[in-house]
Specification:
The chain has 268 residues and is of the alpha+beta class. It is built from 6 helices and 9 strands, in the order ββαββααβββαββαα. The chain is 29% helix and 18% strand. Helix 1 crosses helix 4.
Length: 268
Amino acid sequence: MFENQFPSLKLPAADPAIEGTDLMPVRPSAGVCEVICYSQQHDGTFATMPLSQIRKLTRVWRERYVDLGSRPEVEYVFIFENKGREIGVTLAHPHGQVYAYPFVPPTPTLELATERAYLERTGRHVMADVLAEHDEQVVCSHGMFVAFVPKFARYPYEVYVTSREHRPSLAAMSDTELDDLAHVLLELTRKYDALFDFSMPYIMAIHQAPTNGEHDYNWFHVEFYPPYRTATKLKYLAGSEAAMAAFINDTLPEVTAATLRGLSVIVD
């Protein structure tokens, strides 16, 4: 792990290049950007690593979440991986990143508001109820964790990985649970590679509780966005998706889940 050489966020932060207004305020880009190398093998990927290495990686994730989240200027720790040229990646060495933001970004802000409102209204966690309605869309599972194609998938092979029981963040997980997470993530990424017989590009995004207070209503999950809809066609974000955020998906989650579920891979 090392700090990004070209960070979008850094400490101490430089003064903003322009002055903000009441309508469009500007603040210093205070925070941390880190890179986590997965392996010494330059030509490897997440999916080609042994399970023992992914288990170590989940512990690094937990340690970075706790350490960065303890800093007073940090409010949200985002762990993610951009994989593949199709995603815009220029560094081929297998790696992920960590952004420690001085604010809670828009997407988790909306998720948190929805989770809190649902819990207050029903007394149940929304992700628990979502998971209960996705038996036919399960791709794989191991112990505490399960991977499924959500009924609201925006990409044909979009997959969520989440815990069966409420866990707000990596910090709330035992070593055994981290091992379960590692197993499901590795199985899923190997299924992705087996889907079209090439190393599948994707965005992997870990959603967990902010670090700026108590957010026990949040439910940890990982989202995968692979851009391919067939072996030769990408899923482009055109007018309806890019302009209106109204995604058009011409596949059924039951079908794509069954396709991924039927791919036989070995996790070791």
